[in-house]
Amino acid sequence: xxxxxxSSPHIIAMVGVPGAGKxxxxxxxxEMFHAPHxxxxxxxxxxxxxxxxxxxxxxxxxxxxxxxxTIVFEGATEKRAWRVELAKTARAxxxxxxxxxxxxxxxxxxxxxxxxxxxxxxxxxxxxxQFSSPHPSEPCVVISGRHTYNTQARxxxxxxxxxxxxxxxxxxxxxxxxxxxxxxxPQRPVFSRIRVS
Length: 197
Prior knowledge:
Rossmann fold, disordered C terminus
């Protein structure tokens, strides 16, 4: 598929409990639409220092924002305060942010997490206690972690289409006069050219 062509670049930030299906969706979505995918889980595999991983993720995200392309982000989004800070950073760089909340029942999420993380139940429980659901004021779309990728992607794309500005102008001629003129396809919106310092 072609890259996402939105009127302004977005950060699509994944939110959800461990094992919800965030990584699977993010990887498939970024692959399908050729969007950069910043996965702090890869950095976490290189270091046990959570502060260093979060710092590196933030620095890499700021560098990726210089491209003015839509970015899929998996990182520190489990706390509302962290999401607010991420949203401020995105807006300052000319980006819009959309949180994708992957919801999965806790039993399924726990089973997935334990299978992928050597039955580390203590870490799972700690991460669950740390998680705060997105607030209604946060720009968020909910997808099910148990649905197929196509259903999930369709839900997200529908939401992204809702935030696009209308690019077709209102007709200036009466309806009868338009019958003889050929129909034109509306132009796709393009990324805005905003500089990031």
